[in-house]
Specification:
It is built from 8 helices and 3 strands; from the N terminus they run H-H-H-E-E-E-H-H-H-H-H. It has 231 residues and is mainly alpha-helical. It folds into 2 domains: 41-122, no CATH class; 146-231, no CATH class. Residues 1-23 are annotated as: Disordered.
Length: 231
């Protein structure tokens, strides 16, 4: 009996040797997923796709947490309300999520608003502390007309932000590796204020940063506005 196929029926191809466009697309997608059998150019493409996917996921999470905190966090809602009362309403568009370098969680710039480092938060509580910290800077800029190039002005706002935001609560300090119990909160506030002032372009040395913080310490640590007490 003849085993020849009718002319309108083609011998099925071995998928491993197929060169059809659909097979190539499938093979390429699988290789991108597994990372196996990729050329150097394809490896680079895979890394770019992974980075893009991570950036999108980080941004989505940051935006969701930002909305949740703006609506439901007592400290964030309180600060946003006091900014409105002070004539400096802070819209959601002025709080931006972006990727950042290491060792930074957020920032405030009068001309741009607040930066939230979408890839640097351990959890939502960490973001809450960071957002509160930056909102205190925004409040100070609104109420007290801070000159950020003046190290004493900058030091005062950093003292207040570290003191009032929750940034120096005991659990945060423990995670940073600081275990002292005697006046640990004050030590944390001073340490973090000095580090922030040291990053000011007007600050030329650690001694200048420490001097600025020490000069305004008593009055600024005691100033809890707009709170009645340390949060």
């Amino acid at each position: 009996m003849s085993t020849q196929l009718p002319p309108d029926i083609k011998e099925p191809q071995d998928p491993s040797t197929s060169t059809s466009p659909s097979f190539e697309r499938w093979r390429h997608s699988l290789a991108l997923f597994t990372g196996m059998g990729l050329s150097p150019a394809e490896q680079e493409e895979r890394l770019k796709l992974q980075d893009a996917g991570k950036l999108e996921k980080d941004w989505d999470k940051c935006e969701k947490w930002k909305r949740d905190l703006s609506n439901y966090s007592p400290i964030v809602s309180f600060l946003l309300n006091h900014l409105r009362i002070s004539g400096c309403a802070f819209p959601s568009s002025s709080i931006q999520c972006h990727p950042c370098p290491e060792n930074r969680a957020g920032g405030f710039a009068p001309e741009h608003g607040i930066l939230l480092c979408q890839d640097r938060f351990f959890n939502k509580k960490h973001m809450e502390d960071t957002l509160a910290h930056e909102l205190i800077h925004a409040y100070d800029h609104c109420r007290f007309k801070v000159d950020w190039g003046n190290l004493r002005h900058h030091a005062c706002s950093e003292i207040r932000a570290a003191n009032l935001s929750g940034d120096c609560r005991a659990t945060r300090e423990f995670k940073r590796g600081f275990y002292a119990f005697n006046k640990q909160h004050q030590a944390c506030v001073k340490r973090r204020a000095i580090l922030s002032v040291l990053a000011n372009p007007s600050c030329k040395s650690p001694e200048m940063a420490e001097k600025a913080v020490n000069e305004v310490w008593e009055s600024c640590f005691a100033d809890t506005r707009p709170f009645d007490d340390i949060y």
